[in-house]
Amino acid sequence: MNISVVGTGYVGLVTGVGLASIGHKVVCVDIDNAKVEKINKGQSPIHEKNLDGLLKKVLAKKLFLATTNLDSAVKNSQITFIAVGTPSKKNDDIDLTYIKKVSEQIGKALASKKEYHLVVVKSTVAPETTLKVVLPLLEKYSKKKAGITFGVCMNPEFLREGVAIDDFMNPDRIVIGEFDKKSGDTLEKVYKNFKTDIVKTSLNNAEMIKYTNNALLATLISFSNEIANISQTIPGANVFEIFKGVALDKRLNPIINSKRVNTQILSYLNPGCGFGGSCFPKDVKALTAFAKKKKYHAALLTAVLDINKKQPLKLVRLTEQKIGNLKNKNIAVLGLAFKPETDDVRESPAISIIKELIAKKANVFTYDPIVDPKTAGTHFKNLSFNHTESLHEVIKNKDACLIVTNWKEFEKLTPEFIKSNMKNHLFIDGRGFFHNKDISEINYLGIGLGRNKKHHN
Predict the structure, then answer these.
(1) Which segments of the protein form a coiled coil according to its record (predicted)?
(2) I need a surface site. Which of 38, 56, 245, 330 has the fewest CB within 10 A?
(3) In the 8-state DSSP scheme, what is residue 89?
(4) What pTM does this model have?
(5) Residue 251 annotated as part of some ligand binding site
(6) What is the pLDDT of residues 334-386, one digit of tens each?
(7) How far is 228 from 320, CA to CA, in rounded Å?
(8) Binding residue per annotation — 274?
């Protein structure tokens, strides 16, 4: 099929390249000419495992192209995916500016098109958005009726940054919210070669499935951090051992044919310094704001956000607990990305940690294997800190080291490495890196580890 994808961010580019890799002819649209030129040279504007290689491959096969011409892309395709950003507004609702603008442009392109065309919303939007915002705009500017000359679907993505290509190529499910049967059947043909469960439902349900999915995972993370914070007060407690015992409950981790099934959901019962990224914080806020519009107070989701907002600062409090006043102290912060294997710093715990350290008059030094704060947009704007180029350099002679992102490279941080490079050997673990290792030779504090001799806590 000939497919157009509007948007070349994490969702749009991965979707476009992924669809091209299975034989569809894809054109990705973006308003940024420099970005388009870069993509057409085989250079991905985002860091995503295996994306560069796959992009080069589909370009070489002439199955993929990027352009700034939305009108042409829509008119020369059978299906258009909308994959533009829906950032948070100050009131936690989502900003539909890009969605509305693109819907208008697609509608205008459809006005002169005779053939049937399917428009698919891939962007994460609140329930009723596709039906009450996108569809009316398409009808208004195309002067056509949905269900006759064009169809509408809502097809949420479940891609995890860092493994997005693998998630796209091996989906655990495909959710198709359909305006009518023809719309759903047309989209289903796009995914005909994928061997997975296909859920066909209403537009509103599809939107709600996405929000519910992310809200559940975010809730598990905040729940695990709540338990970690309680465990911190108990002598000798280790929250990681606690969750190991909990995870063996067969309702969470079933035993089938005498073998334990290790379910992926347990990976979200993982205490630390909180969740970040472009999805969980934004989506939970948006769902809470949506509920408020409907005159319902989402108490649980509000608590999830409150716990997550406070959690990164636990690392700063642990540092103060050990070395007191942070004024003029040299503090290393390891990791700027919100999670490993991505360069995305949106809502990263590192941002609030750095801000708090600076407010305490500490001298902040950072390191991340991928992220350069100078090219990370406005996220680190007006923050004065020193970014270093190596793991060795960032911890050299520092008063304390805070681990914020669990990059694999940080496994080099053995007690011997820390002792030979750090000033006070004070290590504040925000990701449970050393919770099950012998670290008796260094000063170690970790989230969810109660006061005991072993952890020098």
Answers:
(1) none
(2) 245
(3) P
(4) 0.93
(5) no
(6) 999 999 999 999 999 999 999 999 999 999 999 999 998 887 778 888 888 99
(7) 19
(8) no
